[in-house]
Amino acid sequence: xxxxxxxxxxxxxxxxxxxxxxxxxxxxxxxxxxxxxxxxxxxxxxxxxxxxxxxxxxxxxxxxxxxxxxxxxxxxxxxxxxxxxxxxxxxxxxxxxxxxxxxxxxxxxxxxxxxxxxxxxxxxxxxxxxxxxxxxxxxxxxxxxxxxxxxxxxxxxxxxxxxxxxxxxxxxxxxxxxxxxx
Length: 182
Ligand code: HEM
Hints:
The chain is mainly alpha-helical. Strands 1-2 form a two-stranded antiparallel ribbon. The model is unreliable at 178-182 (pLDDT under 50). Helices cover 70% and strands 4% of the residues. The longest helix has 36 residues, at 129-164. It has one domain (9-70, 77-176): Transmembrane di-heme cytochromes, Chain C (Fumarate Reductase Cytochrome B subunit), CATH 1.20.950. Belongs to the cytochrome b561 family.
């Protein structure tokens, strides 16, 4: 059981960095579907940024499994503690699923999975129009689920910061005293 009151430095850096990257990806994704003229540069950004999220979430999950998070306040209603834990695992699942589905979508479309000029990833799905349609839909629907979960997560974080003022938000916002968990 973790006795520290704050997330470790790796967890905090990855949390805020990935929060910005994921929000950017949701808007880049919607932008490239909505605008034909902006689509080329947006999709050129979407692919490598998405794969960067995939690499970072591997590091993040490893850190999370090796370092237990600080405990939730003892007086938090059980349903809120359950919702917090469940939503965190949903977010982890989506951080893996979204880039993998995007990568598989481009593969099934038969397009090169270009990261930057001269560097491509191998396909991870066969070139198949039916599979492409299924993966493309799944990527779009899970993006909506991700957006909704991020909004719930943000609302809960602000509830802890401004209403309960119970230290849950500060656990991710800054390090603890004494430098132990930096
Ligand atoms: C965390 C990672 C990712 C997020 C949050 C994300 C988000 C989105 C969103 C919001 C859309 C628009 C969906 C719609 O309106 O139906 C989209 C579309 C798309 N994404 Fe991603 N994406 C991610 C990773 C990737 C990756 C890694 C690739 C490819 C390597 C990729 C390829 C695509 C493609 C091909 C489309 C469809 C574009 C179109 O049909 O016009 N995505 N993504």
